[in-house]
Amino acid sequence: MNKDTKKNYIEEMKKIFSSNEAVMITHYQGLNVVQLDKLRKELRENGILFKITKNRITKLAIKETVCKDLEKFFTGPTAAAISSDPFLSARILTKFAKSNDKLKIIAGFMEGKIIDEAEVAKIASLPTLKEARSNIVGILNASAQKIIGILLAQSKKMAILAPAEEIKK
Q1: What tens digit of pLDDT does each residue of 69-84 get?
Q2: In CA terms, which of 30, 128, 142, 159 is 20 to 30 Å from 83?
Q3: What is the pLDDT of residues 108-144, one digit of tens each?
Q4: Residue 167's domain spans which residues?
Q5: 96 shares a domain with 60
Q6: Do the beta carbons of residue 93 and residue 27 sit within 8 Å?
Q7: What CA–CA distance (Å, rounded) separates 74 from 5?
Q8: Do 40 and 87 belong to one domain?
Q9: Looking at beta carbons, which pairs linking 3-10 to residues 24 or more positions away fall under 8 Å?
Q10: Where does a domain end: 110, 126, 142?
Q11: Whole-number pLDDT of residue 39
């Protein structure tokens, strides 16, 4: 890479790191091309950039961004999953890492702070916004159905008892 290409690359990386909300750092050593392509395809379909970069150049680019604390994690065969949705990228990477033990999630950056592998796994287990909304609607709907059931049960009992009272007279 010549000097101008490096400068352009660094500027591009600065923009990418600054304009996204989540960065997940992984080590991919041992994954073959087919596995990497499968992971990249799944991430790309969900609007997530999976970038295998040169560590030295990435460290230069990241120094002037909000993600500057991630600099220490760029060692060895490193790739970064960069997106605006931290939950989705954590979910996809965690799922892929479970089926391919060669992919290691090292750290992440979300909402201005560094998160470790355990926190990434916790984030991955959280429900999506759609799932959370459907759970809330389900809870509210179940409560309404229970109230209606109770009210109808009382009126049903009263309807059964009314003819019995008339028979007694």
Answers
A1: 888 898 889 999 999 8
A2: 30
A3: 998 888 898 888 888 888 887 788 888 888 877 777 6
A4: 127-169
A5: yes
A6: no
A7: 21
A8: yes
A9: 6/57, 9/57, 9/61, 10/57, 10/60, 10/61
A10: 126
A11: 93
